[in-house]
Input
Amino acid sequence: MSIMARWFPPMVLMFVLQTTTPENDDACQVGLSALKWPQLTCTNVDSRYFENFGRPLNRTHWIKCVRCAIGIVDEKTFHFPKNNISFLELQESQILTLRKFAFSSFFLLKLLNLRGNRIDYLEPKCFAGLKRLMHLDLSSNFLKILTNNIFSELGNLDILNLNRNQIFYTQPYAFAGLMNLKYLYLNHNDLKKLEDKMFNHLTNLKILYIEHNGIVEIHQNAFLNLRNLNYLYLNNNSISFLVQYNFKPLTSLVGLQLRSNDLKEIQVSSFNGLKHLKSLYLGGNKISAVKPYGFIGLDSLVILDLIRNNFSSIDFSYFDKMKSLYILWLNENSISEFKISSKDEVQISLGVIDLSLNNLSNFNYSLLYSKIPKIKEIVLANNSFSCDFFTNMYSFTEEKNISLCMSATCNYNDTNSYYDTVCSEQFMTTDNSLNVTDFSTDSAPILSITRLYIFLYTFYSILFC
Output
């Protein structure tokens, strides 16, 4: 067979795919998708258009609807025998309801995008037949309740996006059948309570987002069976209390985020059981105290975030037993006292502490160093240290090869500038005999000159007196 003979049929097919449209109809155009597959893009059509659709789809892998008005999807809407559709995008298509067997013609479908519609009800078996579906996007709709077994046909689903609905309740078997689900997105809904065994059927879930829901309460068994979960995001809710062993079932959890909630204190054994947790983010709460053994069980924790809470006093014993802790963020509190006892455990792994934007005027830095012998960086910007205290602490940290940071960038010049500022200003306020006035707008160089002036004044006084 000649080369021309072998290539002629595919060339004809490509020409047909790119140019053929239904007779007297240019509502749908064929092109190539982002994956370089034949894609059918239909604009400004309704459900009746698809019901009478006569174009062969055995070579089309992708259908995308733009500014459509479909309304209700049932088994007649997409009656496409013999199709190879893998991707179906119906976002912002004014869909109200999904009836049973709505997508049963798409037996090869892998992705179904229904984002930005008006769906407020999912009829039982509306996803029947989608045994190969891996990604379902129902975000930005009007769903309120997830009923039992609504996703039970989707045994191969990998990603389920339910962000920005109005979901306030999930029935006990709502997630039944999703044995292979890895990613679940529930952000921006109205879930006030995480119910008993709510995620019981999601045994292979890896990442769970439940942010911006107004969650007040977490049932003690809410996370039962999530033994493979790696990351849990609960930021921007209204959680004020954590039950003892709340997270114990999450034996594989690596990252937990509880930022911007209403937590006021850390209860006993709040995180016990999270033996593999690497990062814990508790910033933006109202925490002012940690109960004894509040952080017990966090043997693998590397990062602890306590930024923007209500601590006025910090006890180093809070962090006992945390053998792997490397970064501790305590900035933007109201800490005026840092308690360190000779009885506290040595933190052999701790390398970075951020105490900036607090009210500290002093603390026992030499004892702190004995308890954290491998400390590399201490951030202390925006506190209330005296010149004497800061000078002695700076000399001590220099000797121990510790970076004393007086800015977020931990720049060496910033620390020197801070020293000039604090010590010069304190000298000026306690000794007015020199009557040195600074009229400049750029004070940093002048402050350095002031130090030089003080030195020369002292030198000449000794020399000539």
In short: Helices lie at 3-19, 47-51, 365-371, 387-399, 412-430, 443-464. The chain has a mean pLDDT of 85. The first helix runs from residue 3 to 19. DSSP finds six helices and 28 strands in the chain.
